[in-house]
Amino acid sequence: MKREKIELNKILKKGKALFLAYDQGMEHGPTDFNDKNVNPLYILDIAKKGKYTGIIFQKGIVEKYNEEIKKSKVPLIIKLNGKTNLFEGEPIARQLCTVEEAIKLGAKAVGYTIYIGSDYEDEMLQEFSKIEREAHAEGLPVIAWIYPRGKSVKRKNKAKLMAYACRVGLEIGADIIKIKYEGTEKDLAWAVKSAGKTKVVIAGGTKKNEKILLKQVREIIKAGCIGLAIGRNVWQNKNPLALTEKIKKVIWKNKI
Ligand code: FBP
Fold it and tell me: Domain span at residue 153?
């Protein structure tokens, strides 16, 4: 099979990443939104003015706002699977958009969530593996959201699972792994080490106090992650661009 050089630089700046995540409308519903941030163009504007190295959308938003996205020149990352939080039971998120569609829509990278530990882990691993093959054949980077979830991981140590998620990301061929920060900075450093040459970014989570968030960002960078794929903490903030600048200082100017 043909394998192109993976164009990671299109979604990184000096090897570091700051992605603006906006797939929560599907994952959580519009309860995450207010009058402003319910509009994808508001989010795109933050990504453009804040010079984010990527913006994460599901394909429906990309199809409807394609002109504006292209004009913004913010590198596009399309999330290929997703689920709602209305669904109960063992977590599974199946593929909704193909690599070919994503490329046609202008994606510079694709993303896919795997819930390791779920009863359906094997299906997601298999689907990811097909996506990885197709994307890499076109030189497209693949970002794996890896979240340990399901009844079998309920009582397991979260810090250890963070390292397990990173190792799985390396083994399955992800270029970047997106995980949640659980445990200490030392636990995270071990997780990053476990990811080997695969790069690690951290999700923001629910909105928290700015000081706490920035402390976490400093720890994340010190632990060796290349940056963040953050959503609610930025676009639910009253001044998302001011917060973005503070985050960027930590990521690119090593203000730690
Ligand atoms: P946030 O920074 O808003 O947490 O976004 C990160 C993210 O991974 C999103 O891409 C995704 O929609 C959401 O978190 C999923 O969160 P969860 O599965 O924990 O509800």
Answer: 8-253
**Total domain count, the chain:** 1
Instruction: Write down the pLDDT at residue 2.
Output: 62
* Dist. CA 113–CA 102, nearest whole Å: 16
Rounded to 5 degrees, φ, ψ at 64 are: -75, -30
Is 3 a domain residue? no
| 66 occurs within a structural domain | yes
Residue 129's CB is within 10 A of a number of other CB atoms, namely 12
Q: How far is the CA of 32 from the centre of ligand 1 (A)?
A: 11
2 falls within a domain: no
CATH number at residue 31: 3.20.20.70
Give the atom of ligand 1 at the shortest distance from the alpha carbon of 145: 8
CB-based contacts of 169: which residues, under 8 Å, 6+ apart? Answer: 144, 146, 177, 195, 198, 200
For the Cβ of 232 lying below 6 angstroms from any atom of ligand 1, the answer is: yes
Q: Is the pTM of this model over 0.85?
A: yes
147 classed as catalytic: yes
Nearest Cα residue to 161 out of 210, 95, 117: 117
> What is the tens place of the pLDDT at every residue in 46-87?
999 999 999 999 999 999 999 999 999 999 999 999 999 998
